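Reminder to self: tokens first, then the designed residues, so the page reads top to bottom the way the pipeline ran.
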């Protein structure tokens, strides 16, 4: 993992558009990813536009913060599971970023995501474990270093990812993130502040 050179006091603002979940209302087949909006300068970034119960509700929540779907400049996939990617086409003008490339129209631009600057206060970071290709989005706001990541499903962890690709990598990624994150936005849950009880 690279040195991000970020501290709290940055220019980004972060808004959760949709709290994800796994299982809902007694239905184990229901799954939704956490979808996050980050704005910093001219960049309007949506992280993990995956499965949600209502696309219309997602776009309405986006509009509450000012941008329309057409205004979104960048979409980030933490990894390539459909519950985190399936709604990317809602944002027709966006560049799409994953672990190894940026996609613009019909252009596939190879590059390593680790340390990639999306905006003055927003970077990508390799954090493998859930999959070998996982990346996290780190945003410096006025008061926090916020991390959008699938290193945790939710605040409870789980301590061991039942669908994880590599437990050792996952724990190493968690340790790195816990070294600086003051607010974590997990893959399938509400934001939480890490403490001594956070799954490591």
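Designed residues (200 positions):
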């Amino acid at each position: 993992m690279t040195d991000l050179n970020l501290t709290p006091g940055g220019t980004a603002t972060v808004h959760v558009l949709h709290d994800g979940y796994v299982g809902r209302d007694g239905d184990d087949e229901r799954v939704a990813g956490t979808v996050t909006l980050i704005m910093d300068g001219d960049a309007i970034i949506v992280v993990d536009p995956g499965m949600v119960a209502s696309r219309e509700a997602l776009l309405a929540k986006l509009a509450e913060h000012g941008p329309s779907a057409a205004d979104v400049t960048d979409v980030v996939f933490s990894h390539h599971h459909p519950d985190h990617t399936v709604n990317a086409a809602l944002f027709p003008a966006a560049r799409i970023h994953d672990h190894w490339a940026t996609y613009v129209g019909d252009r596939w631009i190879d590059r390593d995501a680790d340390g990639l600057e999306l905006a003055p206060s927003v970077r990508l970071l390799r954090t493998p474990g859930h999959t070998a290709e996982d990346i996290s989005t780190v945003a410096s706001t006025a008061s926090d270093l916020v991390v959008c990541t699938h290193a945790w499903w939710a605040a409870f962890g789980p301590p061991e990812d039942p669908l994880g690709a590599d437990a050792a990598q996952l724990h190493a990624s968690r340790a790195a993130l816990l070294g600086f994150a003051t607010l974590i936005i997990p893959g399938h849950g509400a934001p939480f502040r890490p403490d001594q009880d956070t799954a490591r």
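The mean pLDDT is 96.
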